[in-house]
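[stage:ingest] chain + small molecule (DOR)
[stage:ingest] validated
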Amino acid sequence: MNTITLPKPDDLHLHLRDGEELSCVVGDSARRFARAIIMPNLTPPVVNVEQALDYRRRILACLPDDTEFEPLMTLYLTDNTSKDEVQRVADSAAVYAFKYYPAGATTNSDSGVTDINKVMPALEQMAQCDVPLLLHGEVTAAEVDVFDREKVFIERILAPLLENIDTLRVVLEHVTTADAVQFVTDGDDRIAATITPHHLMLNRNAMLAQGINPHHYCLPLLKRERHRQALVTAAISGNPKFFLGTDSAPHHAHAKAAPPCCAGIYNAHAAIELYASVFDAMDSLHTLERFAARNGARFYGLPLTTQTITLRREPWRIPATLRFADTVLVPFQAAQTCPWKLVEAP
Ligand code: DOR
Ligand code: ZN
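[stage:predict] done
[stage:export] tokens:
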């Protein structure tokens, strides 16, 4: 197979930033994806429907009028999120979910949840109005090793949560471990997971084995090879619980180069091409459509898109840097060859 045509896929986990940075990156996603779940971790965070609708307008204002790209907005859950705000999300046609960041777990998570008990009323309201909860699934407890943060989150927070609120629907975002794959696979159909291209392609050696590589620093961290293999098996399986979420998260090159290095990898410039390369390497291009365009739409109750994209087997060189406001960012796989190429619409 040298070309593949898919329904235009959905990116169910995307960071677009704001202002000049937003205008530099949003086109990369809009060319490849029909819709995207937009993360709310701006500074200050997007905490109410009105702010989400404003942010949505700013996103669309960066794109040409004829672009058919739909930002699916989310709100940032805080200790102070009210049940009324949950109801407003349920009533909104543009806001789809709440994002749970444990306070201090990652980029711009300072306003995140300090104790799950503080948000139980909001979570119960989400279950009642069928608003999904999107989880950054890591604990931040000082005694937990950073490579174990996801596994311990599942044990301490996620498993009890699903028991306590038996109709809450959750997405465990950017899963990185065999433990997470197993938990999601064994769970009922209230739980699903997104998987990033970088966690499918790299293990932690890529970050640490040849000097520290800040461009491979993201959260949750890359893990051991056996975990990467479990993620690939889940992605190509066709299991409707696993779907595409790039976690594309641009940072200025200078913010990655000096400590404290910002967590996040920008992959929107080649995301679907890189997923195709992973599936192709496993002789599984036939399941890419399910992972990229069907499973996530089904979880979120979205219609299959009528647009299509075509990819061609044609090696191309990923640029070493991309413009990012007044500086540059270093994209994922910078200066490497990508075996699949997006055929640009005429
Ligand atoms: O690596 C990451 N970058 N993980 C996150 O959870 C947030 C993201 C960002 O916003 O930069
Ligand atoms: Zn993210």
